[in-house]
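Record filed here:
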Amino acid sequence: MAKIAALGAYFYQSLLAFGLLIVVSNLLPASDYAAYSLFVSIVQFADIVCFQWIRAASSRFYPGPIEANETVERGVIVAELAGSACICLLAALLAPLFGASVGLGLIGALAAILQGAGELHLTMLRFRQEFRLFSWLQGARATIVAGATIAGAAVSADLAHVLAGVLAGNLIYCVTAWIRSRRVMPLTARWSGEIARRNLVYGGISAGAGVATLLVPLGLKSVLLASLGSAAAGPMLALDLLQRPFVMVTSSLQAIRFPELVAQFDRKGDPHAIQGELGRYYALLVGLSLIAAAGIIAVLGLATETVIPAPLRESFLRTAPFVMMMAMLRAFLQTVLPTPAHLQRRLPVILGLATLDCLLTCAGAFVAASLSGGADLAIVAGAAAGAGAAAAAGLLILHWRSFAMPWQPVLLPAAALLLAWLTTRWLATGHPLVSAGLALTVAAALSARPLLVLVRWIAR
């Protein structure tokens, strides 16, 4: 039940983040929302550059094979976090070189540090199997950050107050997390050159993959802004909203299932048991992503009419299907394909897949923008085509570890997605509520049994 609670915390966080984007997009003018969206992506990029290497190493080596290792591993991680935070603050002083003020650079750096520290803390709790505390803190972080951001926007609907809310929310959460977990994981800095070198080698390459992965939305937003100006707000909102469900599904399943997969692989247990566990892991990732996609397609028209700001609706709805297709393909590239490489510590493969994703997806968007004269639909369709090419190339070049995958929990959700899409197209001229209701009924009928099977696997 603790794992189900942890998964529920991820869903809660995703729903709050989804709602936050809708509220902020309705409160801010289109130009300010575009700037806010770009700022969030830059903060995430800084977080990945400075702190992802520590999180990646923690997810592979913390807490260690024996209990005595945990204190040393934790102490080294704290020291690495402090050093990376200092580098992040120093880098903020270079903000004028990129056309931003030092003040804005420092706000972004502080937000990245607090976000990175919070993510690292939650990663360590997961790999300690502290799922109850993890679930509580995950939900608390989503609530605090969303509440503070909306409060900032409510004080004044401009970019400065929204950013102040983001910063305040992350600070309040970090203090809360330290108070709640100080007995489980006290802050004690230690040093071991051997552990630090190991973390830097493994984590550095994994962080490079994370940087390449995050460059995709940053690159797409840059292409959209350069081509469309403030008219990019609709497609950018589609990017912000429709990538989140797939990121949530894959990251939550990784958080809950991957630690057990790593432990089983490192213990060199029964090969048939490992094949079965790996196959179920793949089925969880793909099956739940397809179920999420079917649900999104079913309600997309109704949700657009209901919650998307009127000036953004047309461009949002026009680009949303291709954004969703791109997000699904990229989730597959980032989670399913690199799993064997993570288990076998084949670092060049991990970096190569992420680089392939970045280059082909961004190239697809750039080429489409050039050929179409900057049409929003062409840009996101080009990005989706690039992501598809990257996924196909990854399948061809990757050396798979043998696995035994049950196909029913994947094929039925795939059929649900196809039929939900066909239903919405068939009833495109009808009332959105009727179209959404019928499409949801079709998707639920085909997905109910696979969903029950997948949830049982999660709870095991």
User: Anything to note?
Assistant: Residues 215-460 form one domain. The chain has a mean pLDDT of 84. The CA atoms of residues 178 and 186 lie 8 Å apart. The chain has 15 helices and no strands.
